[in-house]
UniProtKB/TrEMBL annotation:
This is Ubiquinone biosynthesis protein. SUPFAM superfamilies: Protein kinase-like (PK-like). Residues 196-435 form the ABC1 atypical kinase-like domain. Pfam families: ABC1. The chain crosses the membrane at residues 6-25, 37-55, 75-96, 595-614, 626-650. Coiled coil: none annotated. Belongs to the protein kinase superfamily. ADCK protein kinase family. The keyword Membrane applies. InterPro entries: ABC1_dom, Kinase-like_dom_sf, UbiB_kinase. The lineage of its organism: Bacteria, Bacillati, Actinomycetota, Actinomycetes, Streptosporangiales. Keywords: Membrane, Transmembrane, Transmembrane helix, Ubiquinone.
Length: 659
């Protein structure tokens, strides 16, 4: 026993070293980056399969080199056996690459986390399903619900949807709030019913909120504030607000994130995405609404809203870029950045009431001010409120607007703003060519696009929506459809503009039914265009352009003279560098490598077939000649080269080219 243990240990260590060497050689011959665990398992499996798979080959060569002069037969046989052993893990890895790509099967830790997440998500799915069935929405989730036949049935279904979203929790309440402004997507009865979610969220008890405040502010509430009203001023889906007074005397609003909301929202957003994908693939109404895109945009917006430091920075940025308050009577609260954290936001208190309480006489003026404010933010200032729904607005005591909740803010650079301005001006002139050119500056131009068809579609769009007395409710939906049909990809910052305008459209209709959005937008364009062509503005623009062009203009005469002189004396040459981009060179090199490997593999296979068919030659066994043995080795080399090409082919969609 004392002798067998060291011997067994030595054999185990030797086997392990052989497996590691086999894994390293296999990885080197394949020429791609493979996972260490995957390569080791392939080598281990090959080490176990090698004896039974190679025994027939060894039996066929039994007696090689047993004579007085063994010759080179044993060397070729040894080379053949080694190559066959190496070939086994290569075949395993190539098959695994084709059938089970890296990342498709999670590791043990990932599998455990995924299983735990699936269990939690399954419980939440079950809860949501029970809520939907309880409110009569089960058939609609399966895509089998009938369309309401009359208004009574429509109102009843809308009420059931609102109650289900309210019972579903914070994320679904927020989803209902967003959908309530999308009258371009939902019937009016649904939008009106979901609009009730804006102000009907039960507040969290103070016993749950106080620990959040103390943890975020670094001390008890009584020490941080001179006074604090523990009765919530308002309760929203993500946070609730309290009134307080600082020791310096300012009245403030303290916005506190609901306890544990981050985990709940992350879990529910995953479910919302999955439900949207399922409904879009299984239901006609889901495809018509584009639920997957809506869910992604909603998830991105609500994730950003969870960090109140982002909201404080957004609030400061919008306020800093705002114009004169007398011209744009919209007030933004000022944040107290020293007291703002990820879950607590302290800001100036604005005194007023909900904007939905505005009288019919005040509605048109407020809607006009809001439209002017947002268009100026988008087209002039470049920093805009991306979620202007009624819950984020209030009417101040002086009758002006207050804009709240800057959790979702968009930003545009100067070039995008200029393109959007040209788009608006061309729309104002109803110029299809100008609108097409401006739109192709706003979105990335695809390699192939039917510009005449796009121009005709935009012309029809303007005729449908910009004519006298036309309704603008479906305007942004139709514009999105045109962009999608013609294969135009909208950048995220421009998509935020379109979403903000679509949300604004629903808000304006709610503030002032029958509001002339097109006419007011044209009036804004006329005012801004007049400012652009004012003598002072034109002079300033010309001065700036000439200042930028002055260095080029100074060098231009000398450069023209040099070109003319070179052409006169026959020395004018044109230098063109092919494959100047490193990525192009890398791609071409990888392609050439694959072609060479394919040619070499085909050549080795062809030579192997020829050598295996040769009858003569020195014999290494009674049935095998040296030429045939060399042919077998070439056949294995051919297989190795072909496997190397195949794994590059299988990896191309993920790696973007050969290694």
């Amino acid at each position: 026993m004392p002798v067998d243990l060291p011997l067994g240990l030595a054999l185990s260590v030797t086997a392990l070293l052989m497996i590691l060497a086999l894994a390293a050689v296999t990885r080197r011959l394949l020429g791609v980056r493979l996972g260490v665990v995957r390569t080791f398992l392939a080598a281990l499996l090959a080490f176990a399969l090698a004896p039974p798979m190679l025994s027939p080959i060894l039996d066929s060569f039994r007696g090689v080199g047993t004579g007085a002069d063994p010759g080179i037969g044993p060397m070729w046989l040894l080379f053949l056996v080694v190559m066959c052993v190496v070939l086994i893990p290569m075949v395993i890895l190539v098959l695994a690459e084709a059938l089970v790509p890296p990342g498709s099967v999670p590791g043990p830790l990932e599998a455990f986390r995924s299983l735990r997440g699936r269990v939690r998500r399954g419980r939440r799915y079950s809860q949501i399903t029970r809520i939907a069935i309880r409110h009569g929405l089960g058939p609609y989730l399966r895509g089998r619900g009938d369309r309401p036949e009359d208004r009574t049935a429509t109102v009843r279904l809308a009420t059931s949807l609102r109650q289900a979203l309210d019972e579903g929790g914070v994320t679904f309440v927020k989803l209902g709030q967003v959908l309530s402004t999308r009258r371009d997507l939902l019937p009016p009865d649904f939008a009106d019913e979901l609009g009730r979610l804006q102000d009907q969220v039960a507040p969290a008890p103070w016993e749950q909120v106080e620990p959040v405040l103390a943890a975020e502010l670094g001390g008890p509430v009584e020490e941080v504030f001179a006074a604090f009203d523990r009765v919530p001023l308002a309760a929203a889906s993500i946070a609730q607000a309290y009134t307080a007074r600082l020791h310096s005397g300012e009245d403030v609003v303290v916005k506190v994130q609901r306890p544990g909301i981050g985990t709940v929202v992350a879990r529910d957003l995953d479910i919302v995405r999955r439900l949207a994908a399922t409904l879009e693939s299984r239901t006609r109404w889901g495809r018509s609404l584009g639920l997957r895109v809506l869910a992604d945009g909603f998830a991105a917006a609500i994730t950003e809203e969870l960090d109140f430091r982002i909201e404080a920075a957004n609030m400061a940025a919008v306020a800093a870029s705002a114009g004169d308050g007398a011209v744009h009577p919209v007030t933004y609260p000022v944040p107290f950045t020293g007291l703002c954290t990820g879950r607590v936001l302290v800001m100036q208190r604005l005194s007023g009431r909900p904007v939905t309480a505005a009288s019919p006489e005040q509605g048109p003026r407020l809607a006009r001010d809001l439209l002017d404010c947002l268009l100026r933010q988008i087209l002039v200032e470049g920093v805009f409120h991306a979620d202007p729904h009624p819950g984020n607005l209030m009417m101040l005591d002086d009758g002006t607007l207050g804009l709240l909740d800057f959790g979702s803010v968009g930003r545009l650079d100067a070039s995008v703003r200029a393109a959007l301005q040209r788009f608006l001006f061309a729309m104002n002139r109803q110029d299809p060519l100008g609108v097409t050119d401006a739109l192709l500056e706003v979105v990335p131009r695809p390699e192939e696009i039917d510009e005449p068809a796009l121009e005709r579609a935009l012309g029809q769009f303007m005729a449908r929506h910009l004519g006298p007395g036309m309704n603008s409710v479906q305007m942004f939906t139709d514009l999105f459809r045109i962009v999608s049909v013609h294969g135009l990809s909208v950048p995220p910052e421009v998509a935020a503009v379109f979403r903000a305008l679509a949300t604004l459209e629903g808000t304006l209709v709610r503030l002032s039914p029958g509001f002339d959005l097109i006419g007011e937008a044209r009036a804004f364009a006329d005012r801004y265009l007049a400012a652009q062509v004012a003598p002072g503005t034109v002079k300033e623009a010309v001065t700036q352009e000439l200042t930028a062009l002055l260095p080029t203009l100074r060098r231009l005469p000398r450069r023209v003279e040099r070109i003319a002189s070179a052409a006169e004396h026959g020395r004018l040459a044109l230098s063109v560098r092919l494959l100047a981009d490193e990525r192009d060179r890398r791609y071409l090199t990888g392609l050439v490598h694959q072609v060479l490997l394919t040619v070499l593999g085909a050549t080795a296979g062809l030579m192997a077939v020829l050598l295996l068919g040769v009858e003569g030659g020195p014999r290494v066994t009674s049935t095998t000649t040296l030429f045939q043995l060399i042919g077998y080795n070439l056949l294995v080399i051919c297989a190795i080269l072909v496997l190397r090409v195949l794994i590059l082919v299988f990896r191309r969609p993920r790696d973007g080219g050969a290694a």
